[in-house]
């Protein structure tokens, strides 16, 4: 066990004087396919080796005690009357239980200790990892009949309905369904999925964290959705079969460019190109052509910067600084935008020197310290014990 897993396991054992089951669900990165999910497009996430650990054991009938090591808080919830608590982390657990109960299942009280090693605010989906590990563990312990895709849908409903965040399914799907050395091409319309190889021998997946999150993120996200919907509404008069930008060809968009608001046109152009780019990127992976894949990452960033306009000076600087570096195969901003991390494919031997160079320039120009995280691909939710999990 790594240090985080050991810390969670030991805390449970010391607190409750018994041995727990220990489960893990990973965070995720999305290599390409940004802002395509709510346009019925494709995404290309991978589970990573950092995530959330859950030590858990059903109680002997008494109310369960839930402990968060990262927030240094403890709650004793009443599972017969589920309602939001002031401790926000506990609501992600309650929301999952709420969905199981709505499905007609009784979840017995349990003690648990929760801890993770995902950097806070880096956009690696710690909330989805928490929901996923709880859903997976409770399915296993209560012998419920859910497979992994069904658990991803349950976790998404939990966040939509109990937490009140209208997120897509990508984060939970990647956390539950990830495979080491592979990415998942997820069709956000049908939820069909396919694995593609990500052979990174000699390379590292490196995240550079800007340390900023601009306040525009929430309002601009909603505005982008509205702009995409406006483009779809206009183009439907020429092709009623269009349901989303997934159904729009670049030729159709260009044919009616003059009829669209210039901003709406730019938003639609980015999404249509990004959906095509994501499909082409999986062809690159099939051929083992990471150079071409990396070029597409740079193209995605340019689209997010100039057409979708969800980047920020900090992200743009980090991508610009690596664009001409032969050690960097590809780079782009990752996530919703206006802060967070860039994701980079970097030659292994050059990582430390690259970070030193970027950190110096970044602090000089932005007045902030730069953080770096190395991640590797990993398997999805699992039981960290010798016995095999029962979830399909």
Automatic annotation (TrEMBL):
Positions of the GHMP kinase C-terminal domain: 283-363
GO function terms (MF aspect): ATP binding; galactokinase activity; metal ion binding
InterPro entries given in the database record: Galactokinase, Galactokinase_CS, GalKase_N, GHMP_kinase_C_dom, GHMP_kinase_C_sf, GHMP_kinase_N_dom, GHMP_knse_ATP-bd_CS, Mevalonate/galactokinase
Residue stretches making up the GHMP kinase N-terminal domain: 91-179
The keyword Repressor is annotated on this UniProt entry: no
Enzyme Commission number: 2.7.1.6
Residue ranges occupied by any Galactokinase N-terminal domain in the UniProt entry: 11-56
UniProt keyword terms in alphabetical order: ATP-binding, Carbohydrate metabolism, Cytoplasm, Galactose metabolism, Kinase, Magnesium, Metal-binding, Nucleotide-binding, Transferase
Protein's UniProt name: Galactokinase
Organism name: Catalinimonas alkaloidigena
Lineage start: Bacteria, Pseudomonadati, Bacteroidota, Cytophagia, Cytophagales
């Amino acid at each position: 066990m790594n240090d985080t897993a050991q810390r969670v396991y030991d805390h449970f054992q010391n607190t409750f004087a018994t041995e727990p089951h220990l489960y893990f669900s990973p965070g995720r990165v999305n290599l390409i396919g940004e802002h395509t999910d709510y346009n019925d497009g494709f995404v290309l996430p991978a589970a990573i080796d950092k995530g959330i650990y859950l030590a858990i054991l059903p109680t002997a009938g008494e109310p369960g005690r839930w402990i968060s090591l990262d927030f240094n808080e403890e709650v004793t919830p009443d599972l017969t009357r589920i309602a939001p608590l002031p401790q926000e982390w506990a609501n992600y657990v309650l929301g999952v239980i709420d969905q199981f109960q709505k499905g007609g299942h009784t979840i017995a009280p349990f003690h648990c200790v929760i801890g993770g090693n995902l950097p806070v605010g880096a956009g690696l989906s710690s909330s989805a990892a928490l929901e996923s590990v709880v859903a997976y563990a409770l399915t296993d312990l209560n012998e419920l009949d859910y497979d992994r895709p069904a658990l991803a849908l349950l976790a998404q409903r939990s966040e939509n309905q109990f937490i009140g965040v209208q997120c897509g399914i990508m984060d939970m799907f990647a956390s539950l369904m990830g495979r080491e050395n592979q990415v998942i091409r997820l069709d956000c319309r049908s939820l069909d999925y396919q694995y593609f190889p990500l052979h990174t021998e000699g390379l590292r997946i490196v995240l550079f964290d800007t340390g900023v999150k601009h306040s525009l993120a929430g309002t601009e996200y909603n505005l982008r959705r509205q702009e995409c919907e406006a483009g779809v509404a206009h183009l439907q008069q020429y092709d009623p079969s269009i349901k989303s930008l997934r159904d729009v060809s670049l030729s159709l968009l260009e044919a009616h460019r003059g009829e669209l608001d210039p901003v709406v046109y730019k938003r639609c152009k980015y999404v249509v190109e990004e959906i095509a780019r994501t499909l082409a990127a999986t062809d690159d992976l099939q051929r083992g052509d990471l150079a071409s894949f990396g070029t597409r990452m740079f193209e995605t960033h340019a689209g997010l910067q100039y057409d979708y306009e969800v980047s920020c000076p900090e992200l743009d600087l980090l991508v610009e600084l690596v664009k001409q570096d032969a050690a960097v195969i590809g780079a782009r901003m990752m996530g919703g935008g206006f802060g967070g991390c860039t994701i980079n494919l970097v030659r292994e031997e050059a990582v430390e020197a690259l970070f030193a160079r970027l950190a110096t320039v970044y602090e000089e120009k932005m007045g902030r310290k730069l953080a770096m995280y190395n991640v590797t691909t990993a398997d999805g939710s699992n039981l960290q014990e010798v016995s095999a999990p029962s979830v399909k």
